[in-house]
Amino acid sequence: MTTNREFLVPEFGPFAGIRIVDTGSLVAMPYAATLMADFGAEVIHIERPKVGDTLRGLAPFADVNGKKVSTSWVQDGRNKLSMTMELNLKHPEVKEAFYELIRESDIFMENMVWLEKLGIRDEELLKVNPKLIIVHVSGYGNPAFGGVPEFCDRASYDMIGQAFSGWMNLNGDADGDPVIAKPWTNDFVSAMATVFGIFAAYAGVQKTGKGQIVDVAQYEAMAMYMCDTFTTYTMTGNVRGRTGNKSAAFQPYGLFKSKDGYDVALGAFGPGVYKRFIKGAGFDLDYFNYKDCSSGVEAVASEKGQELDRKTVEWCLARSAEEIEEAMAEVKVPCSRVNTAEDCLKNEHFIKRDNFIKYQDQTTGGEVTAFGVVPKLSETPGKVWRGAPSLGQDTEDILRKILKYDDKKIMILREKELI
Predict the structure, then answer these.
(1) What does the domain layout of the chain look like in residue ranges?
(2) Catalytic residue among 22, 53, 158, 187
(3) Angle at 242 (CA atoms; ends 237, 244), nearest 5 degrees
(4) Is 177 noted as a catalytic residue in this protein?
(5) Does residue 252 have a cis peptide bond before it, meaning omega lies within 30 degrees of 0?
(6) Which CATH architecture has domain 253-340?
(7) What strands lie across the sheet with 253-257, from one edge to the other?
(8) Which pLDDT tens digit goes with each residue over 323-372?
(9) Average pLDDT over the chain, rounded to whole?
(10) Which of these, 288, 289, 306, lies nearest to 298 by C-alpha position?
(11) How far is it, in rounded angstroms, from Cα 143 to Cα 162?
(12) What domain of life (predicted)?
């Protein structure tokens, strides 16, 4: 972290004093930057002039004050500074400005893949700022870290990472098609891996004073969340596949329909919770004992195990979602109805946790209600100091206050349509 710098964001949170320059679009890398910005990092999001981040054009849209804005951008573009610049270092003016930003920053993040074509090279950036952390986020990884070069050069989306990693093969009904986990699950998982990588590298910089490169491949980030899928195969030869919403090895564990039409998630893993479920449902524990009904695949598939499943289905169908939740809460068995966005916004627990916050969207000028900052910190909490910026909203401030550009230098960049 460099001191004695002028920052354009208010000081708050544990990451105050950290400056990030990010280039790219859509979800995985930009969302990682949002997570950092929510806790005080100054994030300068470089966007193409007159084009902007592709996320700005992602449906659904809201019309506010006669202006249209992507609701995804409203949620995830917040707390950032928007700088428009044609980021191609063949233009000497751009190269000068970009290198100055790198010199004044701690972290450079990108998910553009084609950096070489733009003249952006890791070794040159590290010469400009030897303490810089460089973060690459891509579908298949940077070839400098290994892999098949042709794969590393492939395009990717959230869905592709889910498919290539093997994750998608685990989701869906056993006799049905694979299911794409929504929304953008692989992108958000990759963002979490990115933030972890940043702070692993940041700890190294604090110890050694030497910057380094962080490489995040979407498929690898997703594969890390697959638990025993690979060891199951290497140790037993079994390929884990889709099992649907219910567990084949213990019960009850899955989705059940309530009398009032809700799907309810209800789970009892292990003998202790199982016994509490049987008590809460009013079933005979001696008859529906754990060993015979829930101690493994054979028990669940047995005649008595299947009888218990039918009785559980019937028990849920005879009660409202609220009655099911209350009965299970009484005996400490995990249970929740499957909420919609409307349900969440009206839910007392969400409300009392202050999960939803209001801020002003910079594109439309309207106030929005959005999901707030997670996790909660007692001493250095995060916050939203500003809504998602309009395109290029902060370009001049960045040039004047951070890079100390005068009117003449800014005019040259404008005349050449580089900002």
Answers:
(1) 19-225+352-416, 253-340
(2) 187
(3) 145
(4) no
(5) yes
(6) 2-Layer Sandwich (3.30)
(7) 253-257, 263-267, 335-337
(8) 999 999 999 999 999 999 999 999 999 999 999 999 999 999 999 999 99
(9) 95
(10) 306
(11) 20
(12) Bacteria
Write the CATH number of the domain with boundaries 19-225+352-416: 3.40.50.10540
d(CA 419, CA 204): 35
Q: What does residue 212 show for φ and ψ, rounded to 5 degrees? A: -160, 175
d(CA 360, CA 78): 10
pLDDT digits (tens, 9 = 90+) for 29-73: 999 999 999 999 999 999 999 999 999 999 999 999 889 999 999
| For residues 9-22, average pLDDT | 97
pLDDT value, residue 1: 46
Task: Bin 227: left if φ > 0, else alpha if -120 < ψ < 50, else beta.
Answer: left
Torsion, Cα of 153, 155, 157, 163 (10° steps): -70
* Backbone dihedral angles phi then psi of residue 340, each to the nearest 5 degrees: -95, 175
- Alpha-helical runs (H) found in 166-217: 185-208
Residues 260-265: what's their mean pLDDT? 96
Q: Is 196 exposed, middle or buried (0-12, 13-18, 19+ CB in 10 A)?
A: middle
What's the number of CA atoms in the CB half-sphere (13 Å) around residue 25?
A: 14
Residue 419 CA to residue 417 CA, distance in Å, equals 5
Give yes or no for a contact between 339 and 265, defined as CB atoms under 8 angstroms apart.
no
**Helix/strand/coil for 327:** helix
Write down the residue that tokens 């009013």 correspond to. 282
